Amino acid sequence: MSDSEEEECSDRQLKFVVLGDGTSGKTSLATRFAQEAFGKQYKQTIGLDFFLKRITLPGNVNVTVQVWDIGGQTIGGKMLDKYVYGAQAVLLVYDITNQQSFENLEDWYNVVKKVNEESETEPHVALVGNKIDLEHLRAVKVDKHLRFCQENHSSSHFVSAKTGDSVFLCFQRIAADLLDVKLNKAEMEQSQSVVKADIVNYNQEPMTRTINSPRSSMCTIQ
Ligand SMILES: Nc1nc2c(ncn2[C@@H]2O[C@H](COP(=O)(O)OP(=O)(O)OP(=O)(O)O)[C@@H](O)[C@H]2O)c(=O)[nH]1
């Protein structure tokens, strides 16, 4: 097989960095996307977690998405610039029930801007409002969210890592945009699948099961 043929067959790799305050749901989002799982228990990310997921975009375009899930406490730390460096996409995640998590995105975004100051290509910036299953507790107005997107030329996403609502669509839309793949309406609707919440039986062992998908993997760097 020639080099160019080999290149065509091999997957495109995209680096997605997920930023935002602690407890906004970054790990949950990454886990929902890469492993189709959700854990109710909060476990703080120290440093970063790393996930890989292979997806196929329309036209049989295979993409391996690297998801760099950055701990909320890394803001102001020495390593953050290094984690953000070279990202093709940055997901700025906030919790729609937590006003402060939205306000603080400015600090996260400033890090992204600083890292890319000298770079020729800008990453795709996506604003992600998480926890839409808690719409009744919404503290951040949709208008504010949309204004941020307009002012910063970012794409706009509302998701629930808990139910799975629009999570795959969010990652798929960003990857498609980066690779210039057009998604039609049917493809967008298809990936909107809502995953029903678990029924928990408290008499049984807590659910610590890991779903081992052959198409995804994860490791933790501390
Ligand atoms: N209701 C609801 N809860 C969520 C959702 N996403 C995450 N959570 C919960 O919010 C808490 C924090 O979620 P994490 O994914 O650990 O948050 P994080 O942003 O990774 O936090 P750090 O590791 O501190 O940066 C956990 O208890 C999750 O179960 C969601 O979509 N809906």
Automatic annotation (TrEMBL):
CDD domains: Rab28 (cd04109). Signal peptide: none annotated. GO terms for molecular function: G protein activity; GTP binding; metal ion binding. Keywords: GTP-binding, Nucleotide-binding. SMART domains: RAB (SM00175), RAN (SM00176), RAS (SM00173), RHO (SM00174). This is Ras-related protein Rab-28 isoform X2. The keyword GTP-binding applies. GO terms for cellular component: nucleus; plasma membrane. It comes from the Eukaryota. The keyword Nucleotide-binding applies. Gene3D superfamilies: P-loop containing nucleotide triphosphate hydrolases (3.40.50.300). It comes from Pogona vitticeps (central bearded dragon).
